[in-house]
Amino acid sequence: IGYPVIVRPSYVLSGSAMRVAYNETALENFLKLAAKVSRDHPVVISKFVDKAKEVEVDGVYDGETCLIGSIMEHVENAGIHSGDATMSIPPHTLSVEIQKKIEDATQKIVKALKIKGPYNIQYLVKDGAVYVIECNLRASRSMPFVSKTRGINLIELATSAMLDKKFEEVLKTCGLPPTSHVGVKVPQFSFMRLSGADPVLGVEMLSTGEVACLGENFADAFSKALQAAEFRIPPKGGSVLITVGGDEPKRRVVPLAKAFEEMGFKIYATAHTADVLQAAGINSVSVLHKVKEASVNPNILDYLQDQKIDLVINVPMGNKQKSYSDVLTDGYIIRRQAVEFNVPVITNLELASALVKVLQQKENNGVTIRSLNEYMDELPWKL
Predict the structure, then answer these.
(1) Are strands 239-244 and 266-269 parallel, antiparallel or unpaired?
(2) Complete DSSP assignment for 320-331
């Protein structure tokens, strides 16, 4: 199947002990570790689709009617555990054509499996193609989010379906039309309370809770959800530290840095990242020296300690790079010190891009303040 592959011991929950192996050496190292932990249980190796969008569907089937509660789009690309992912209802970037493919696939899967009750199906989307990851015949952690956002109690409907009761006629005839509002769910982390924990997200779940908010659009809802999860949104004219590993991620961060510059942010970066930004015409960037250069000023750790940085965007190279272990040491200290000094940290470029949208909207319009009941009163159905 080729590399990269995702490797996990059988019967694990929350992605425990899962890894993505980008080469033979990484795969061998993980298999040796898995064998030491348990020789009695097999290891599952699957193809990992890099740079794909992850999508989920929550719904209920009563044996006749397949109710799709919602299609949820992950902000982060595949490779981030669904429990740690930021999700949007409705999808904020998927085309109508892709959503139709997902709906059709969901109908076929649910009817073929003859489900009676709740279901959760996870998909990958890449280059216009839709791939099925898995179908879970159970209620998922995202069902309360879907229920609150869409104004329908999926758990009550699932219970009725399991008791062989059929959906009301209104659900059979019209399903659930789109809502005028947007819901965004974000993870809640406890890195401050977990000494030494690295805030880099991956296939193993790290979050300890989640928060969901509604808004007029994606940026509005995302802004509220971040603040509810105790993420400090940088102030207007604040400062951002950008340190990105790998050539491609450095190129991808350029538009984000330009957006920060246009919003009046002071931009700091490590030397190699600064070179790329300056070559792209971002001349306002200032270089901060790495942790290993502690005796040289200006230094990242001093700026974090003195609260001169309002946001850290630190994206590690990943296992494709041979020097990953070297970068991890310096990058880990930056991320961990940011946590210790209560400076927001983002380790994912897709999430950083979404935050830029929040800052741009906040600069222009601010956020809306409405109660959940006000949003529910606008729905065309009362279920």
Answers:
(1) parallel
(2) TSTTHHHHHHHH
In CATH, the architecture of 232-364 is 3-Layer(aba) Sandwich (3.40)
pLDDT tens-place values along the chain, 383 residues long:
788 888 877 655 544 567 788 888 888 887 777 666 556 667 888 888 888 999 999 999 999 999 999 999 999 999 899 999 999 999 999 999 999 999 999 999 999 999 999 999 999 999 999 999 999 999 999 999 999 999 999 999 999 999 999 988 767 666 677 888 999 999 999 998 888 889 999 888 999 999 999 999 999 999 999 999 999 999 989 999 999 988 899 999 999 999 999 999 999 999 999 999 999 999 899 999 988 777 788 999 999 999 999 999 999 876 444 444 444 578 899 999 999 999 999 999 999 999 999 999 887 777 899 999 999 988 876 65
Q: 5-47 — its CATH code?
A: 3.30.1490.20
**Where do the domains of the chain lie?**
5-47, 53-181, 232-364
CA distance 234 to 206: 24
Q: How many Å apart are CA 293 and CA 291, to the nearest integer?
A: 5
Structure tokens at 275: 């070179």
Q: First and final CA of the chain: distance in angstroms?
A: 46
The third-level CATH classification (topology) of the domain covering 53-181 is D-amino Acid Aminotransferase; Chain A, domain 1 (3.30.470)
What DSSP assignment string belongs to 120-164? EEEEEEETTEEEEEEEESS--TTHHHHHHHHT--HHHHHHHHHTT
Cα angle: 245, vertex 248, 252; to 5 degrees = 95
